[in-house]
Amino acid sequence: MSVRIKKSFFVPILVTMGLVAGFFREILIAYYFGTSREVEIFRVAFALPSILSESIAVSVVSVLIRNLVPMRRGSFMSGLRQVVWGGGLIATGVTLLGIVSMPAQALLLAPGISGAQRELLVMIGRICWVMSLFVIMALPLRALMSVRGRVWPGASSTFVRSAAFGIVMIALITAAGETAISFAASGAVAGGLAVLVLHALALAPTDRRRIALTFFKRPSLDEMYTIPAAVMSVIVTQLFLSGGRMIDRAVASTMHPGTLAAVEYSYAILMAAAAILATSSNIVLAPKIAKNISRSGMHPNIPRQFKLAIFGICACAVLIGLSLTFLARPVVSCVLERGAFTESDTILTAEILSLHALALGPLVCSLILTQIVILRDMQGYLLGVAVVKFIIKAVALAALLEAGFGAASLPLSLLVAECCMMLSLFGVLARLSHQRCRPV
C-alpha cells in the first residue's frame, strides 16, 4: 500500500477512534454513576462548556484559517497575531462568562435541581468551564497546523480528550476508593488540557517560535476583535442547534430522578450511530462534492450519483433506526448494564431509545445536507435553519407535554425537529438551485 493511500485512511481512522473513545466514556460514566442524581448534575454542568468548545471547533478553525492563508511573511505574521490573540480573547471571555453565570445557568438549564444539589451543580459547572478554556486555546494551533497540511492533531482531539477523561476519572476513583461526580469533572478538565498539550507538542519548532513572537506585539483593537466577531455567529448558530437538547435536559430535570440521565444515555447511543453513518459518509462524499463544485464554478446541481449515494445512506439510517426501536432493550443492556447501571436503568433508557431511534434517518440526512451547505459556502443559511429547528422543537415539546405524553415527549419532539430541519435544508438547497439557474 502506498504512503498516499495510508495517509488517506489515517484521518478517518483517528476520527473513528475518537467516536469509539467518546462512546466508551459514556460506558464508564454509566458503570460508575448509573442514572443517579449526581450524573444528572454532571450532564447539565458539562453541557454548555462542551458545546462552546468541542462542538464549534470545526467551524471556528475554518474562520481562523482565513487569517492564515496569505503566506507572505509580513501578512502571515499579522494574521497569526490576530488568530492567537483573537483565540485567546474568545477562550478567556467564554470561560469567565461561563464561570460567573453558572448560578443562572443552573436555574435555567435544570429548574428541577434545587438546594444543595444546585450548589453542587454550580461547583461542577465552574470546573467544567476550565475545560473549555483549554480546548478553545488549542483552536489557533489547530488552524495553523491545518494550513500547514498537518490535520492529524485536530482529527485525534476527540480521542485524546475522551481517553484522558477516562484515565483520570478511573485513577481518582481508584485512589479515593469511592465515586464522586467531581472526579468526572476533573476528568473533563484533564481531557481539555490533554488536547491543548497535544497541539502544542505537534507544532513545528518554527511555528512554535512564531507563536511565541506574537505575544510581544499585540494587534490593533480593530484587528483583534475581527475574529471574535466572526466566531460569534458560529457560537450563536451552534447554541440554537443544540438548544433542543438543552430544553430536554431542563424538562427532564423536573421529572422523576433518573429520567434526565436515561435521556442522555439514549442520546449517546443515537448520536454514536448517527456520527458513524454521517461522518463516514462525509469523509467519502465531501471531497468529491467539493471537487465537483470547484470544477463547475459553484453550480448548484449535485450529480445524480451523489444524490443516489445520499439517498442510500439515509435509507440505511432509517432501517438502522427502526431496528434500534425494536432492539432497544437488548442494545442498552449489552452496552450499559453493568456496575451502577441496573436493570431498572436499562428499562428506562430503552423506553427513551426506542423512540429516539425513529429520528436517526432524518438526523443523518440533516448532517449530510449541512455539510453540503457548508461546502457551497452558504453557512449564513444555517443560522436561520437552526432558529427554525429550535422553535419547532420547543413548540412540539410543549404540545406533547400538554397532551400527556410525559417523558416520551422528549424523543418524539426530536423526531419532529429533525424532520423539519431536514426539510428546511432541502428548501435552502432548492432555493439556491432556483436562484443560480435563473437566466440573467
TrEMBL record:
The superkingdom of the source organism is Bacteria
- Coarse class of the primary localization is membrane
Could you tell me the keywords of this UniProt record?
Cell membrane, Cell shape, Membrane, Peptidoglycan synthesis, Transmembrane, Transmembrane helix
Q: Where in the cell is it found?
A: Cell membrane
Q: Which residues cross the membrane?
A: 9-33, 45-65, 85-108, 120-139, 159-177, 183-204, 225-247, 267-287, 308-327, 347-369, 381-401, 407-430
Q: Report if keyword Repressor is assigned.
A: no
Q: Which GO terms describe its cellular component?
A: plasma membrane
Protein's GO biological process = lipid translocation; peptidoglycan biosynthetic process; regulation of cell shape
One protein family per Pfam: MurJ
Question: What InterPro entries is this protein classified in?
Answer: Lipid_II_flippase_MurJ/MviN, MurJ
**Family assignment from sequence similarity:** Belongs to the MurJ/MviN family.
As for what it does, the entry says: Involved in peptidoglycan biosynthesis. Transports lipid-linked peptidoglycan precursors from the inner to the outer leaflet of the cytoplasmic membrane.
This one is known as Peptidoglycan lipid II flippase
